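Quick one, T. Sequence first:
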Amino acid sequence: MSNHHGGFLGVQSMWLGLGVAAALIFGWQAFAPSPSEGPQEPVAFLNVGSGGDTRIEKITRAQCLQREDRIWAVTSDGVECIAYVASPNARNASSALIYLGGDVKESELAGATQEASRTSYQRRAEIWASRLGVPVVIIGRPGLMGSSGFHLLGGRRDEGQVIDATIDALKERLGTRRLALAGQSGGARIIAQLLVTGRRDIACAAMGAGAYDVPRLTGGGTSRTNIFGDPGRRFLVPIRQVGEIPVVPGRRMFVIGDPRDQVAPFSEQKDWADKLTALGHSVQLIEAKAKDPQFHGMTEKALIAAGMCMAEKSEADIRQAVTADE
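Structure tokens:
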């Protein structure tokens, strides 16, 4: 009887083993690439929908680079197809001014809207290049201006990494060596992240209305924690890592803000400037007056400061120009 019971278990185990093997084989065939396809290449995700027609499409490196105004940015976390626009004099220029815009409301994130905005950004780049006398490049942050990715608020670490890789590729494509960066709000925060990561090719950094500490909550206060525990793990918090910024001879920084700012507190901007100064960096804190209802818009002022810095104007001249229309 024991032999019969043992035989039953043996047959049962055999069929169970065959079933598991079959499941593994069919499962692998369902998800694995066919031999003709080879290894799956990385893809980025692009929002191409608008309104109720929200659609996400995959985009490969080849598809991304079919357009001259795209950069395939590779980081340790993945890939993105980043859009940019440049003034005609940006190619083969030894130096260039790069602008990074602020955060965009969720209602304005439709793919069609972002792609359409490229025309106005192109016009802005050309106007500012003419006005400042320097080449101007505007980079679309992930999810903006036709770039792939998802636009997230709060200074995520990977956004700074994507822009860092984008700038490296842009420099190679355009033949640029010396950079001036101008940023508004979330764009200013990314500039701070780029400084923390150790870039030494930034000769001028103009940061307007930025937030440099732990991300603030919509209802007020700051994010004390998240699903990972320490906010610094998910977010690159510049003010916490300010000591990692290398002191580069000749580099000049401008922290620009309105004390009435209702979005990014000026006290945080002053703290950022004070810490940079204490560490030996050349920093100017400029109190300016924004014209929007939230006293937050510093785009024009950041661009003026970065452009004049690139033209090697004095701090006094830059401060006067930034506050001239007040």
